[in-house]
Amino acid sequence: MSGPLERAVQDQVWQLPSSATEHVPGILRLCVGMPVMLKHSEATELCAMNGAEGTVYSWDAHEGAEGRLHIDTLFVKLVNPPRHVCLPNLPEDVIPIGSVAEKLECVLPNDSKISIYRQQVHVLQNFAKSDFGSQGRTRPFNLCHLRNCRNQQSMYTCLSRSSSLAGILILDDFDEMKVRGGINGPLCQEF
Hints:
Number of domains: 2
Number of helices: 4
Radius of gyration: 20 Å
Protein name: DNA helicase
Helix content: 10-25%
Shape: globular
Largest sheet: 5 strands, antiparallel
């Protein structure tokens, strides 16, 4: 598809889950202080690496033709960087993340595919993680939604990210049989 999208299709593309747009969200709903995770290694010398965690400090944006704000630069305050980062005119550990234009293939709700160009900063909201995305991360406060965990190991991965029992909050019901049954050999060895 070339040229601007029809308004109805554009609205549909903006609302697609990131899983339908090569994990580049159409709309990033952000606020100052929101936890975010960097999704690309922007600049190793600034500790701006894939998986680095931070909070939204501020942003520069412009209004697009459709009346929505488009982020040009997102300023992220790194959380526990391996070393402190000091840039001119920015507070300690605050780094700029510029938006990047890239060609993506989108899968629409009717399963048709279209190619688009999307301009977006490479961060994701970081108040929730999948079991896979949480590996190697320890969190003082760990909200766990276990309903969609496939098996016992998935639940273990989610729960084991907590630094203490007091910091775990399980959201919603889950299949208790996944934790009551016996465990397989490899998982038993890990425990």
